[in-house]
Amino acid sequence: QQGTNVHLIFATSGKAGRVNSSATDTEKITSEQESLKQESQKASTLLQVASTTFLDFPDNRLDTISRMDISLAIKSLLTNIQPNIVFTHHHGDYNWDHNIISEASMMACRPNLGEQFPQTILGYEVLSSTERAFQTPQQMFCPTVFVDIAATLEIKKQAMRCYLSELHDYPHPRSIKGIEILAQKRGLETGLLAAESFSLIRHIQS
Q1: pLDDT digit string, tens, across residues 156-192
Q2: Residue 166 DSSP code
Q3: Which domains does the chain show, CATH number per domain?
Q4: Strand, helix or coil at 10?
Q5: What angle do the packed helices 67-81 and 96-108 form, to 10 degrees?
């Protein structure tokens, strides 16, 4: 709606990390992963996303992959897209894959002289992962950038409804009501009806 192109990167395949690997029903997991991709594409279409890329790294097992390999995969996409702004996971999330992606994204976005790199990097919060992390000073999500989403909150909820496999009933944080409550809370912090919040990781003013 603001005239910008949004490109999504899904780092992992999803689902497989939630079961005991010794008892994994491979066929079932593969089917669930395909369904998750279809749900992602449906949400992306609703949000008018310019492109969607699936890196298909193993879910909840990024600690078994070289940090360099993950960073280079992200860097390759950034080189092609050349974004001005990069949004990545909060480094203190409860989900360890999120921690690794945040770290790898920072490596991929290094401001090397003579190279194109994003001027702004923002960390975002993920319901059921960010707020459930241990709230130590080093891990706490401290929002510093707020965007008024009162006019678009319904669209956000519609996009979440596309994720039937990830959507839960309240009081689970990853529920429609959970989304509403967080948006209202961030709005209360900034004098808005509803807001999306981010933590500013880096901003280079030219």
Answers
A1: 999 999 999 999 999 999 999 999 999 999 999 999 9
A2: T
A3: 7-146+197-203 (3.40.50.10320)
A4: strand
A5: 50
